[in-house]
Amino acid sequence: MSELARLLRAYPAFSPIVQNGKPYRKLDFTAANSGLLTRDLSETVDFSNYVFDELLSGSAFNGIGGYGEDRVIYRHRKHFTTDAEKPRSIHLGVDIWAEAGTPLYAPLDATVHSFAFNNHYGDYGPTIILTHELDGITFFTLYGHLSLTSLEGLHEGKPIQAGEHIATIGPYPENGDWPPHLHFQVIRDMGNLKGDFPGVCNAADRDYYLNLCPDPELILRIKI
């Protein structure tokens, strides 16, 4: 376990990122979900109906899951399969599936590291990355698939307080053309990247990236 992971595990409490009061249901987008293998989810409207009408019982629940998953759903998205020799399928964050417009809040004090509109099919869409510091350790959290309005009024270095409203979940197609959800990821080192960071990796790079990106459940602490 990395020093950051130990620090997050020991931290007493983080502010909830989603506060809509709905219970959570764990979603599985690996080959273990046999229902995925017989469906064509290349059309976002069909994918969204599958998630919210079937899996989440007409949006009665929030969906959650995905860290470290080897996801079959990326087979329908060229964004992840352009490199035929190293297709990306290992998910590095946690997804929270909730309706477009759902408010999102900062889990702890931060400053805005960077933001961007990653406007490609299957990409993050509007994205915000925050910088945090705990006990002298700097790390980052990424929020992807947001609404375009979430980027308004931002500037690098803008201070953010724990519990402050920072964004809303975006609708498709502006959110990268996905069913509405938040991709939430913890990152130890951004390198030289701004406004973007890999959220899915090739299986051969799994250990490296999962070490670089600790389990977001260390912050979310959502009970199912």
UniProtKB/TrEMBL annotation:
InterPro entries xref list: Cell_wall_metabolism_enzyme (IPR050570), Dup_hybrid_motif (IPR011055), M23ase_b-sheet_dom (IPR016047)
Domain M23ase beta-sheet core: 90-188
Pfam families, alphabetized: Peptidase_M23
Record has Hydrolase as a keyword: yes
Keywords annotated in UniProt: Hydrolase
N-terminal signal peptide: none
GO molecular function, one term: hydrolase activity
Name of the protein this chain belongs to: Murein DD-endopeptidase MepM/ murein hydrolase activator NlpD
Organism: Dyadobacter fermentans
Upper classification of the organism: Bacteria, Pseudomonadati, Bacteroidota, Cytophagia, Cytophagales
